[in-house]
Structures are given as structure tokens and as C-alpha cells.
Amino acid sequence: RFCPTTDRHRNPSPSLSRLTRTRVCSRGSSCLFPGIVFTIFFVLNFFVWGEKSSGAVPFGTLCALLVLWFGISMPLVFLGAYFGYRRKPLDLPVRVNQIPRQVPEQVWYMQPAFSVTVGGVLPFGAVFIELFFILSSIWLHQFYYVFGFLLLVFIILIITCAEITMVMCYFQLCAEDYHWWWRAFLTSGSSAGYMFAYSVFYFFTKLEITKFVSALLYFGYMFIATIVFFLLTGTIGFYACYWFVWKIFSAIKVD
Length: 255
Description:
The chain is mostly helical.
């Protein structure tokens, strides 16, 4: 975007642009995910209040959560962004062209919709059996005690997300498509869609919920769990792919 010989003291546009992006990312990180979770939780709690249930969260507790969010979590995000902005940028292993190269037309199985959908199958397959026992312990009040096996499944999930994302990224780079950043995140993160679909299947086959509020609580909490799982698996896939791309370009000589 900017000429390599630009003097930052004479033309502060690069610094201002970078600072603006940092502020936007900081606001999104501190508000987007917590805001979605808090909104869903507040709406669900509103319906529980309407049922006059003893399980409703008091209004004072909600206010305390808001204080923790805006008083502790958000300032820490901006503090981390401040120190991250002051750090020296990473030195890329190869020279990057100033003009982006045109991506050739991709075959059907390398289209984002297909590759992202397929990429989420294996990570979900690594956890769906354990997901059944977790859902049973939460919604059917069964005991869950195999935490050692849960740790093993979590390790398998990390390895699976990393491997499937690196493989799909390798095929993408071989097809001369260098837009891998969000594709890597969505490839492993798409397993969250299968998780939510399985929760719908579990609701209609294993649970006998007839009340509207109970069903709303189930799908609301499962939607929150799906968002958390999406961010977790997507982050694993992105960092694995970032490391993979860094390594392969560090090992080659590019003039």
C-alpha cells in the first residue's frame, strides 16, 4: 500500500493507518465476542425471570459482570494492543511483492465453500463421541468422570485441526492462491457448524423438552458453546497454518 522509501516523519500515513487498524481490532476483540455472549445470556435470563425460576441470575450479578467486562477485560485488551503496537514488526522470510498477483481461476474442489466445509469434518469427528457424553452430563444430569480421556481428546483435536488446515493450505498454495489467512481460520473453525448441527440432532433424539423456555435455553447455551468452539478451533488452525507457511518459505530461496 505504501512506497518502501516513504519517510514516516514526512508522511505519517502508514503510522496513522496502522494505529487506526490497531484501535479497530482492539475494539472488536474487546466488544464483539463478549457482547454476543452477554446479549444471549441476558435474553435467556430475561425469559427465566418471566418463568419466576429460582435459577435466574440476579440483576446485581449482571451489573457485576458488566463492571468486570468494561472495568477489567476491556482495559486489559487495549493494554495488550498498546504493547503489541510498540513491538517491532516481524521480518518476513522472503521479499513480498508490492503489487498483489492475480489469483488464477480455481477448480471446484478448491473453492472456499467446499474446502472450508470439508475441512471441518475431521476435527468434529475427533470429538463427537466425547461431545455426546458431555451433553448427557449437562442436560441429562449424568456423572462425567473421564477427565483424563477428555484431555486426550482435546490433544487429538489440536493435532487434527493443525494437520487438516496445513494440508488444505498446502493445496491452496499449490493452486497459486495466497489468500490463506481467513481460509485457514474457517477451515478448522467450520467444525463448530457440525457441532451445532449435532446439538440439534441430540435435542430431537435424546431430550424430551416440550416447554419453549427450556428449548430456548438449550439452543442459546449451545450457540454460545458453538461460538467458543469456533474461535478455539479456528485459532488453532490459523496459528498452525501461519507456522507452516513461515517454515516452507524460510526453507526456499526466492530472488
